[in-house]
Amino acid sequence: MKWLESGESMEYDVIVIGGGPSGLMAAIAAGEKGARVLLIDKGSKLGRKLAISGGRRCNVTNRLPIEEIIKHIPGNGKFLYSAFSIFSNEDIIKFFEGLGVALKEEDHGRMFPVSNKAQSVVDALLSQLEKLHVNVFKNCAAEEVMYDQHHVSAVLLKDGQTISAKAVVLAVGGKSVPQTGSTGDGYAWAEKAGHTITELFPTEVPITSNEPFIVNKTLQGLSLRDIKLSVLNPKGKPIITHQMDMLFTHFGISGPAVLRSSQFVVKAMKKWNLQEVTMSLDALPEKTEEGLFQEIVKLIKAEPKKSIKNTLKGLLPERYLLFLFDQSEIDPAEQGGSISHEKIRRFAKHCKQFQFRVNGTLPIEKAFVTGGGVSVKEVDPKTMASKLMPGLYFCGEILDIHGYTGGYNITAALVTGRLAGTNAALYSKNDRA
Length: 433
Ligand SMILES: Cc1cc2nc3c(=O)[nH]c(=O)nc-3n(C[C@H](O)[C@H](O)[C@H](O)COP(=O)(O)OP(=O)(O)OC[C@H]3O[C@@H](n4cnc5c(N)ncnc54)[C@H](O)[C@@H]3O)c2cc1C
Hints:
Blueprint: E1 12-17, H1 21-32, E2 37-40, H2 48-56, E3 61-62, H3 66-71, H4 81-86, H5 89-98, E4 103-105, E5 110-113, H6 118-131, E6 135-137, E7 142-147, E8 152-157, E9 162-170, H7 186-192, E10 201-203, E11 207-208, H8 212-215, E12 223-232, E13 238-248, E14 252-254, H9 256-271, E15 277-282, H10 289-302, H11 308-311, H12 318-327, H13 341-352, E16 354-358, E17 360-361, E18 369-371, E19 392-394, H14 408-432
Parallel strand pairs: 1-2, 1-9, 2-6, 9-19
Antiparallel strand pairs: 3-5, 4-5, 7-8, 8-9, 10-18, 11-14, 11-17, 12-13, 12-15, 13-14, 15-16
Helix pairs in contact: 1-6, 1-14, 2-6, 10-13
């Protein structure tokens, strides 16, 4: 790779702004098409968010069928149908294997590098950039994208330099975890080209609550496995239910089921102008409420003098069991035989639908993913080209596309990056001809 000084002037076919997964893939795809490509990133390292993704193991894609992948991208997943028909999750797997990064499948179709090291994914992408002679400017922040006579013309850098290009790919990500460089710089450049930015919001983010049991840290640190967690509408009906693990924290709740539910809390608060939303936790999804009640009654009948705590030992993690006894006004030391059926029914109900109020989420900066962004209505789904400004392309999280954690966001970034880079290169060649 030729590391140019940022002051050096040159005209490029394609400038990719942002060296996250979408930008790295876009630069590679444009390089493969023979374009003269410049990739710029304001950080000292490329792929900083990629390197910390998936617990630093990088959940690089997901092997579920495309229909399922789209379902796991609740933020405009359907927009990606055309893109997947051109470059799919299976193509991502082949692409990385071609770069010498062996992948393995884990639960729920999640794909990770065999090395368990996100850095191995980043390094493979960097080697490919080098092979394709893509120029890279690091520590180089873009200040603005320049448009001339309704056409992309150049990128103005923060240091005052202007670099001309036929096409520019905006791959600067969203606003989440800004210390990785994603500070939302691209929205203004898109707006300047006439694009609509849909409202930004935190998604895949822990949820906050003022419930006394949270404030008092009663359950802090407790994780529950394979529970069902629902977000309820004001009429008490579930808007969404996710069956996964969750965790109680000092400010609220977190863990996979919570992250997936978070955008529905944000949207419900907005839609109904609520200060709080009710969530419902089913700690025993395989049992019915009536079945559980009957089971407990039977257990008590067999040993009526045994304390209820010992009778129900193992039904739930002990801390949660004691918590639900407390919520049901049951003394854990009380003999099962002397507890009223009304209280046992209340306890069974709490096991199946413990309801509590939540009052929001951590801020967008702490979210795994940014919801909202460049409206997909104004982007061609087959090429990622702006429908409003010739020569402008979008990819990755800057777009109004967001998926659940599980490899869906990186998949969306890589797929849109592939299309944006390829088509920006083709566009610049036609423009040159
Ligand atoms: C902790 C964490 C773990 C995650 N784990 C997963 C996971 O396992 N699976 C999954 O699918 N998703 C995961 N995600 C989400 C996923 O990492 C992002 O959706 C993805 O990185 C977005 O890629 P991107 O290329 O659009 O943008 P980013 O990765 O955000 O990259 C944007 C790049 O643009 C650069 N940039 C920004 N502004 C400028 C500027 N003005 N000039 C020059 N450069 C600029 C930044 O420095 C940055 O390098 C995780 C996110 C986080 C925070």
